[in-house]
TrEMBL record:
Keywords: Membrane, Transmembrane, Transmembrane helix
Pfam families the record matches: Abhydrolase_1 (PF00561)
InterPro entries listed in its UniProt record: AB_hydrolase_1 (IPR000073), AB_hydrolase_fold (IPR029058), AB_hydrolase_sf (IPR050266)
Protein name as it appears in the record: AB hydrolase-1 domain-containing protein
Organism per entry: Saccharibacillus endophyticus
Length: 377
């Protein structure tokens, strides 16, 4: 091998080593195209360096994605372990009665010496309230001794099971009635409904008029209002719970109060009730029954409207003043709500309250209920 041939091969080897140092795949080199160790570079080499940069970016993104998936997996495991441990502390305080093969929770307190014809207050929660039992608890001491009352938690709420049945309004009212029968809560009833629960109360009165003594709505809309109620996608909230994010945030001071800003930061709940509310949020909130209920809101509202007649029972609408910001057109709509749906209606504005009046001024709710019953002291 002559000296020129050796020089060409040495130059080719040095080019291969340089490409390796730059992170480029080795390219076959024709010694004849290389003039020596210091010879001119082949065309196209800068493009290879650019390709290497993109590969590094995509590789970094891949590792970032793997890290995110790892964190999410850890969060789901954290939530699953937490749910398993929480179940032991999440014990229904009332009766779990059989309704269509599933358990429905009914919490009740009977007034001592209650007369046979004396109404029972049935508390109906609004949409998405994870624990109606805890949510209505500020009312218990105010009603106790003056009226019998019961909280019936719909399927998917509180301590009740989740069912496969679609959440249409007739099925919901049938389940409510069956739960009351099974729990031996006898009519007549004063249906006291928060928010979207007004659809359930009105439909119940339409179907079982002889069993209803009156209706109190707590900052509720009319069926006509819910006919155009905006749909809500709760998937992000559901993922936040199932991935352990909400569970972790509960350890941050002030998070529970922030999460429940429209419920007065749970200030009127006892520590035991706050804990039950937390457990319900982590264990049952935004399940399939709850999301299906909001998907059917327009159909359910239309069903109630289709059978509209003025109910021959007293009806009271409690309206939150939103801390002095309630709009006059909303008040007019509330008055029209009562007048068009009941032969005996009245509207009352509750001062210094947000949407969940029972969390701000439970006395106003208790007074309205007892006044309708004719037993206010």
């Amino acid at each position: 091998m002559d000296q020129d041939e050796r020089a060409k091969r040495r130059a080719a080897m040095e080019q291969i080593l340089a490409q390796a140092d730059a992170g480029l795949p080795a390219q076959p080199v024709d010694p004849g195209e290389t003039e020596g160790a210091e010879g001119p570079e082949k065309p196209g080499k800068p493009a290879r360096k650019k390709k290497s940069m993109f590969r590094r970016i995509f590789s970094g993104m891949g590792w970032l994605l793997i890290a995110i998936l790892g964190v999410l997996l850890a969060g789901f495991v954290y939530q699953a372990v937490g749910e398993h441990n929480d179940r032991a502390a999440y014990v229904a305080p009332g009766a779990l009665v059989d309704v269509e093969g599933h358990r429905m929770h009914v919490y009740k307190e009977d007034k001592p010496g209650k007369g046979v014809s004396e109404p029972t207050v049935v508390l109906i929660s609004g949409w998405g309230t994870a624990s109606p039992y805890a949510d209505f608890s500020p009312l218990y001491a105010l009603l106790r001794e003056q009226a019998s009352f019961a909280v019936v938690e719909r399927f998917g709420y509180g301590y009740s099971d989740v069912t496969d049945e679609k959440r249409n309004i007739d099925r919901i009212t049938e389940e409510l009635r069956e739960a009351l029968i099974q729990a031996e809560v006898k009519p007549p009833y004063v249906l006291t409904a928060h928010s979207l629960g007004s659809l359930e109360a009105i439909r119940f009165a339409q179907r079982y008029p002889d069993e209803v003594a009156g209706i109190v709505t707590i900052d509720s809309g009319s069926p006509e209002f819910y006919l155009t109620f905006p749909e809500r996608n709760m998937q992000l909230q559901r993922v936040a719970i199932k991935s352990g994010i909400v569970r972790a945030l509960y350890h941050v001071n002030g998070f529970a109060e922030y999460l429940n800003g429209q419920r007065n930061g749970l200030r009127l709940l006892s520590p035991e009730m706050k804990e039950q509310d937390r457990l319900a949020t982590l264990l049952v909130a935004i399940n399939d029954n709850v999301t299906d209920e909001i998907r059917n809101v327009h159909v359910n509202a239309q069903k109630v409207i289709d059978d509209k007649t003025r109910l021959d029972i007293p009806m009271t609408q409690l309206v939150a003043d939103r801390f002095g910001e309630v709009a006059e057109d909303w008040l007019d709509a509330q008055r029209a709500f009562g007048e068009s749906w009941s032969t005996q209606s009245q509207t009352s504005v509750v001062q210094n309250s947000a949407h969940s009046i029972q969390a701000y001024d439970p006395q106003a709710v208790a007074d309205a209920v007892l006044e309708l019953m004719g037993t206010k002291r």
